[in-house]
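note to self: dont lose this again. the chain is below, predicted strucutre after it. 154 aa total, dont forget to put it in the shared folder this time
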Amino acid sequence: MKKWQWAALAILALGTGILANWTMKKDFVTLDGEAYQWQDFNGQWVVVNYFARWCAPCLREIPELNRFHRENQDIPIFAISFDPLSKEELSELRDTYQIAFPILINIEAVLWPQAPKVLPHTIIINPQGQVAIELKGEQSAASLKQLIDQLQGS
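---
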């Protein structure tokens, strides 16, 4: 093989490696090990809820968020622990409070500027991947669905 052929092959291999790395990079991973990119949800509404185990309103809201998850399978919902907890602590929390929707454990990229200052805190992301609205305080399944329906109409 000639020098230029080796150089061309090396450039092709490098480009393939860069492309593979870019397409395989994940923005977040769930407690169950599922990895995603935000672009996986293009065209969909997404709900992200911050909670903490010491936050009584957060824990009261979980059954409503579970209900939202059950009744709206076409709208992904994710939980994020406000406190840095280990996988074991998050698993125990999920089991204790019967959290039925995915909990994020490793977040490489977020679509919003910063962690909330008030809990519970729910972020609704529109189908274009932008934050549509941030909600402070407890939410119900009905209020979340109604709000998303309203946002879809506008």
